[in-house]
Amino acid sequence: MKKIIAFGASSSSASINKTLAVYAASKIENAEVTVVDLADYMLPLFSVDVEQRSGIPEGVYRFSELIESADGLVISLAEHNGSYTAVFKNLIDWLTRIDMNVWKEKPMLLMATSPGGRGGATVLAAAKSFFPFMNGNIVAEFSLPSFYENFSEGALVDQELEKQLVDSVGELERVLTGVVVD
Ligand SMILES: Cc1cc2nc3c(=O)[nH]c(=O)nc-3n(C[C@H](O)[C@H](O)[C@H](O)COP(=O)(O)O)c2cc1C
User: Fold this and answer.
1) Lower CB count within 10 Å: N or C terminus of the chain?
2) Are the beta carbons of 156 and 23 closer than 8 angstroms?
């Protein structure tokens, strides 16, 4: 049984990215999925002064240990003004104060969705280019445009998008089980 950590990179209680992350993770065979809520990681706003005064908050170590405990990661990024949500950027900034080994080379399915037609493409591209500097091991990706048109009653409506997602989940499964496909 592989241990999967899944989360939407948002603190919204109605996060569409959390919905997508949970949906994708539910498709992984033989997995024990732990869904993390970033609302539980509303840390003090990072500042070198706060760090000097109070040190790294306990929640940062807790999140880092969660990543360490995982075999694989399913992350869906919310896009705010073309970038990460404040809660996620803040968490990353704190995590990098432990060290740059944020994602610990854990195989990652990286996704994004938004209500708009670009499906969070800008934040997904930003993460794709920078996560490798934090030992991110992105093995598959998926972007879901127009969430509210394409996701209904707990499932993807569009069959082509469903196939893309299943293929991406399959990539993650292959890496997790060590099966190499030519
Ligand atoms: C402050 C703010 C900025 C936003 N900026 C973008 C954006 O740049 N691109 C986009 O596609 N959607 C943007 N949106 C819409 C979000 O994609 C939408 O709120 C989505 O539900 C966020 O994901 P979540 O539900 O997982 O939190 C923005 C929303 C807010 C509140």
Assistant:
1) C
2) yes
Which atom of ligand 1 is the closest one to the Cα of 116?
11
Q: Which of 3.40.50.10860, 3.40.50.20, 3.20.20.70, 3.40.50.360 is the CATH number of 2-177?
A: 3.40.50.360
Report which ligand 1 atom has the smallest distance to the Cα of 81. Answer: 8
What is d(CA 119, CA 63) in angstroms, rounded to the nearest whole number?
26
Q: Contact, 140 vs 169, CB < 8 A?
A: yes
pLDDT at 180 over 80: no
pLDDT digits (tens, 9 = 90+) for 87-118: 999 999 999 999 999 999 999 999 999 999 99
Which amino acids bring their CB within 6 angstroms of ligand 1? Answer: 8, 10, 12, 15-17, 78-82, 114-116, 118, 120
**Ligand 1 atom with minimal separation from the 120 CA:** 11
Q: Whose CA is nearest to atom 1 of ligand 1?
A: 80
Q: Which sequence spans correspond to the domains of the chain? A: 2-177
The amino acid at 152: S
Q: How far is the CA of 158 from the centre of ligand 1 (A)?
A: 22
Rounded to the nearest angstrom, the distance between the alpha carbon of 9 and the centre of ligand 1 is 11
Does residue 182 have a pLDDT over 60?
A: no
Name the token pair of 136: 């991110």
105 sits in the region (left: phi over 0; alpha: psi -120 to 50; else beta) called left
